[in-house]
Write a structure and sequence with these properties.
It contains ten helices and six strands. By secondary structure, the chain is an alpha/beta fold.
Length: 263
């Protein structure tokens, strides 16, 4: 059996809830906050989906402002596209598109400003533009990277991967609450699993991953050490055993968890 990386995070949150959703088929309807998070997540992924086209549009006559415009225009198109795609979902749960736009636009502008500045400086230092710039620039950024590994027994889709010449870094985008320090335990295992999968996909080492808590603008590194690799492998085994079992796990201690429902 090959399981989803998100199943690992769900298992660490509540094994019984994972069993109810994946085996029995009982799913909790999303709250308005969850829907807003879903849309924000989709927009941030879409924004960097085709960076090759953006970078290839940079010429020797481009200044920093015009490069920023290329990125901000691409990100604005991503916002409009995902709002149209998620219109039905937002209407169903009473989410105002204006609320989504006001919460996501500052994040998009900040990301566009930082990435445009990096790309412009690289192009200016190396005097390369267009497709040649895309070929030479590192790190390259890829979004929604599909990954699967039979030996890890895991599959998933990585929000963003930064590909360097000698390493890759997997990013997991989170729109919820940011911990005071470090990352939440389930997020740690999730980004570690994605880092292991990214390493296999690109045939290049992955020494760390990043959990990007976009609402607070905080990016937290997670070092991929042997103990964390072992935890990913162990958790994967526990998830597979759970999903193959006929025994329903005990309810967790959270009063609001879906696992309190009857079936």
């Amino acid at each position: 059996m090959i399981v989803s990386v998100t199943d690992l995070a769900s298992y660490m949150y509540c094994p019984r809830a994972l069993y109810m959703q994946s085996v029995i088929g009982i799913r909790e309807p999303p709250s308005q906050a969850m829907v807003i998070g879903i849309v924000k997540h989709a927009v941030l992924q879409e924004a960097t989906l085709d960076e090759q086209a953006t970078i290839s549009g940079i010429s020797s006559s481009s200044d920093k402002e015009s490069v920023f415009s290329l990125y901000s225009d691409a990100y604005s198109r991503a916002l409009g596209y995902q709002l149209r795609r998620k219109e039905g979902l937002m209407k169903q749960y009473g989410v105002d598109s204006g609320e989504v736009i006001s919460s996501i636009r500052p994040l998009l502008l900040n990301q566009a400003l930082k990435r445009a500045g990096f790309v412009f400086d690289f192009a200016s230092r190396n005097n390369v533009y267009g497709f040649e710039l895309w070929e030479l620039i590192f790190p390259k950024v890829f979004s929604e990277v599909s990954v699967i590994s039979k030996d890890l027994r895991l599959r998933g889709r990585i929000d963003r991967v930064e590909l360097f010449k000698d390493a890759c870094i997997a990013y997991e985008i989170k729109t919820g609450r940011t911990p005071d320090s470090g990352v939440w335990p389930s997020h740690r295992v999730q980004v570690a699993a994605y880092s292991m999968l990214a390493s296999r996909k690109f045939s290049i080492p992955s020494r760390e991953g990043v959990v990007d808590y976009v609402s607070s603008g905080s990016q937290r590194k997670v070092v991929l050490n042997p103990y964390l690799v072992s935890e990913v492998v162990s958790t994967t085994g526990k998830v597979i055993s759970l999903l193959e079992s006929d025994e329903i796990p005990a309810a967790c201690a959270r009063s609001s968890c879906i696992c309190k429902g009857s079936f």
